[in-house]
Design goal:
By secondary structure, the chain is α/β, with parallel strands linked by helices. It folds into three domains: 73 residues, no CATH class; 108 residues, no CATH class; 174 residues, von Willebrand factor, type A domain (Rossmann fold, 3-Layer(aba) Sandwich). It is 22% helix and 25% strand. It contains nine helices and 19 strands. It is globular, with a radius of gyration of 21 Å. It starts with a strand and ends with a helix. The relative contact order is 0.18.
């Protein structure tokens, strides 16, 4: 669970509610060299010990990468999920990397996606002029533009495929009286979602903590949400970046971050711009945000949540009362389960760097106006480099 620039995703400890946070350059080297494995490997051509790969979205432990031939500083890169062990024959592995994916049915009752090289995949929600979901469109109704150039749609479907979801909840001091209703809403989001979804929980204040790994167990998710230690500041951007990186290791193609906060970021190492760029890597997550800001909160806090959601194809909600959070969470689940999945092969080679702007239009009778909500663009081929 290595985060770009942020070190290690912190976990709860059965003895202590917090783990000691060390700088990346200290914690990784100290832990690895002090362990028996680290001492044994340090005597073999000075090769660094293999780093453990976090469990995938289906809860299975993945194989560790082989040690490098020369020593180097710990990298922010991590192997793509599903990498076969040395004993297994090479085969395409489902992953959330820079290649898009197509469903191949179920494998042991779990949906599996296989890579199709050089494709971009969009997850789009369509609403009419009354903001009602439109779910009966066909492939010819859509036009995709990348950098203002029309693209040929190679695959199109609207099915309720499982999603990897990160529930990211503000645990700062001002959230103390709000957490009970927020937790209920988060659980109801999962209950209203696809039963094959895989969900993890991150609670954050001035730091962020992985309180539950990928699971579909409602009881485990409830327990994780009850780790309320409302104190400290609000490191929203750090928590978003860490969660996006963790989602990139999921085997499910579609990815979502559901974030609830009541204040402006005041403790992150990352900036808003850096968080947005991380979210806009290929196959990045869609962000749904709930801002419990109230009139006394700054406009900048609201604008930040709007940017995080708009750039990724999600929605930012700002309910006037806490009682509306539960209804919003159910609407988010409904939105996620009624998306179109559109794939195309870019006319510009992926070797050409830089941000790619995306726009999608939809026209169909009898609708007067249709609005397509999807991500506004992406950075090609950079998701793998961020790991």
């Amino acid at each position: 669970m290595y985060m770009p620039k942020l070190g290690i995703m912190r976990r709860r400890n059965k003895v202590s509610s917090r783990l000691v946070s060390l700088p990346l350059s200290v914690s990784l080297v100290t832990v690895l060299l002090c362990s028996p494995l680290g001492r044994a490997q340090s005597t073999q051509n000075q090769a660094p010990p293999a780093q453990a790969v976090p469990p995938s979205a289906n809860g299975t432990q993945q194989a560790s990468p082989a040690p490098q031939a020369q020593p180097s500083a710990p990298s922010t890169q991590a192997p793509a999920p599903g990498t076969p062990t040395p004993a297994a024959p090479p085969s395409p592995a489902p992953s959330g990397d820079s290649q898009s994916q197509a469903p191949s049915g179920k494998d042991n009752d779990t949906f599996v996606f296989h890579a199709e090289v050089q494709e971009v995949t969009l997850h789009a929600t369509v609403v009419d002029e009354k903001n009602h979901l439109v779910t009966n469109l066909t492939k010819p109704d859509f036009t995709v533009y990348e950098n203002d150039q029309p693209q040929q749609i190679r695959s199109f479907r609207r099915e309720d495929f499982p999603v990897a979801i990160g529930i990211v909840i503000d645990n700062s001091g001002s959230m103390r009286e709000k957490r009970e209703k927020v937790n209920k809403a988060a659980v109801n989001l999962v209950r209203a979602s696809n039963p094959d979804d895989r969900v993890f929980v991150v609670n954050f204040n001035d730091e962020y903590y992985l309180d539950q790994d990928f699971t579909s167990d409602i009881g485990k998710l409830q327990t994780a949400l009850e780790h309320v230690e409302a104190r400290g500041g609000t490191a929203l951007y750090d928590a978003i970046v860490a969660s996006a990186d963790y989602l990139s290791k999921a085997t499910l193609q579609r990815k979502v971050i559901f974030v609830v906060t009541d204040g402006e970021d005041d403790a992150s190492q990352e900036s808003l711009e850096q968080a947005v760029q991380r979210l806009q890597q290929e196959n990045g997550p869609t962000v749904y945000a709930i801002g419990l800001l109230g009139e006394e909160k700054s406009r900048r806090a609201k604008r930040a949540l709007e940017i995080l959601a708009d750039r990724t194809g999600g929605i930012a909600f700002f309910p006037p009362t806490l009682d509306q959070v539960d209804e919003i969470s159910r609407n988010v689940a409904h939105d996620i389960r009624n998306q179109y999945t559109i794939s195309y092969q870019p006319t510009t080679p992926k070797t050409v760097g830089g941000f790619r702007k995306i726009h999608v239009d939809a026209h169909a009778r009898p609708y007067k106006k249709l609005t397509v909500r999807t991500r506004t663009g992406y950075y090609p081929g950079q998701e793998r480099a961020m790991r």
